[in-house]
């Protein structure tokens, strides 16, 4: 799925450069615990999390993940958005829960 | 390794009082390794393992020193703190074992996965820890 398709499916507010929107993502990992993400996350995948602090961006960056979805209507601070942008990581905010978000991604074709 | 005078050496101070900036040394190392042209998979392993170690220094100790040595066939990451030390290293190595308090867990850490991840992603992990004195973690990554 591309980041554009993902954003449409979960009705997200998007912070990304236009050229990032067509990147094709291979999978997703969902957790609020960053060490679980660091154990299982893969490059070019999306991180789905309800946590909101600079470490979600660094965790994604370390793993070469290119997109973060923040769930449950949380709003990223300017600082976090800038950190993501400077590491070329797309930030998406959705009002959906983690469960709903994952369901939508699975439905859309992300299966691992 | 450290005595190899041909090794490139990079030093970083890890601030133990600032969770927000924790991981910045690992970010810099990742950038440097990219510039040096290493394979993305190797860079990912090194940066994830170092990041886990750097976070541990901040949440369990009071920060410390991070040193990275680069030779043609090996990258060595040494993380040294003068924190409380690890009482039982075998226990600490088990997935899920954590002494982190709830406030750390609410920041996304304290799953007890860091040391196992460091073991998984490195070619060699040496933990040298003395209670009341501190902990030195050495991780080696073969690059050739
Ligand atoms: N540098 C350190 N100084 C003192 N104790 C440490 C240090 N690193 C790890 N420990 C101890 O080992 C335990 C296990 O560490 P590990 O990194 O595996 O898990 P964690 O840090 O508690 O959680 P996570 O890494 O999943 O966020 C810690 O809870 C802590 O008790
Ligand atoms: Mg840890």
**Total number of strands of chain A:** 5
Number of domains of chain B: 1
What's the helix count of chain B?
A: 5
Shape of chain B: globular
Return the CATH class of chain A.
Answer: Alpha Beta
Topology, element by element:
The complex is a heterodimer of chains A (112) and B (144).
Chain A: H1 3-9, E1 13-15, E2 27-30, H2 34-40, E3 45-49, H3 54-62, E4 67-70, H4 78-86, E5 90-93, H5 98-108
Parallel strand pairs in A: 2-3, 3-4, 4-5
Antiparallel strand pairs in A: 1-5
Chain B: E1 8-15, H1 24-35, H2 40-59, E2 63-71, E3 74-81, H3 89-92, H4 102-105, H5 114-121, E4 124-130, E5 134-142
Helix pairs in contact in B: 1-2, 2-5
The complex binds adenosine-5'-triphosphate and magnesium ion (MG).
Structure commentary:
The complex is a heterodimer of chains A (112) and B (144). Chain A is an alpha/beta fold and 112 residues long. Helix content of chain A is 38%, strand content 18%. In chain A, α4 (78-86) links the parallel β4 and β5. Chain A is globular. In chain B, strands 1-2-3-5-4 form a five-stranded antiparallel beta sheet, with helices on one face. The longest helix of chain B has 20 residues, at 40-59. Chain B has a single domain, classed as Heat Shock Protein 90, CATH 3.30.565. In chain B, α2 runs antiparallel to α5 (114-121). Chain B has helices at 24-35, 40-59, 89-92, 102-105, 114-121, and strands spanning 8-15, 63-71, 74-81, 124-130, 134-142. The radius of gyration of chain B is 14 Å and the shape is globular. Chain B is an alpha+beta fold and 144 residues long. At the A-B interface, α2 and α3 of A face α1, α2 and α5 of B. The complex binds adenosine-5'-triphosphate (ATP) and magnesium ion. Magnesium ion is lined by residues 52, 55-56, 114 of chain B.
């Amino acid at each position: 799925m591309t980041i554009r398709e993902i954003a449409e499916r979960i009705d997200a507010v998007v912070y990304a450069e236009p050229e990032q929107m067509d990147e094709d993502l291979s999978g997703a990992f969902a957790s609020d615990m960053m060490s679980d993400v660091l154990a299982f996350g893969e490059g070019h995948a999306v991180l789905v999390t309800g946590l909101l602090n600079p470490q979600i961006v660094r965790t994604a960056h370390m793993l070469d993940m290119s997109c973060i979805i923040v769930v449950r209507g949380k709003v990223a601070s300017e600082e976090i958005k800038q950190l993501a942008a400077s590491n070329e990581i797309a930030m998406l905010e959705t009002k959906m829960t983690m469960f709903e978000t994952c369901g939508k991604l699975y439905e859309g074709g992300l299966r691992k | 390794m450290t005595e190899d005078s041909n090794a490139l050496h990079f030093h970083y101070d890890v601030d133990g009082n600032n969770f927000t900036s924790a991981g910045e040394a690992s970010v810099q190392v990742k950038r440097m390794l990219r510039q040096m042209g290493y394979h993305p998979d190797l860079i990912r392993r090194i940066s994830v393992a170092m990041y886990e170690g750097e976070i541990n220094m901040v949440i369990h100790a009071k920060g410390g020193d991070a040193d990275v040595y680069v030779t043609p066939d090996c990258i060595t990451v040494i993380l040294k703190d003068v924190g409380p030390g690890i009482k039982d290293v075998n226990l600490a190595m088990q997935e899920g074992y954590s002494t982190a308090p709830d406030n750390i867990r609410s920041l996304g850490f304290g799953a007890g996965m860091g040391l196992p991840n460091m073991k998984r992603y490195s070619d060699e992990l040496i933990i040298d820890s003395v209670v009341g004195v501190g902990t030195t973690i050495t991780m080696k990554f073969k690059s050739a």
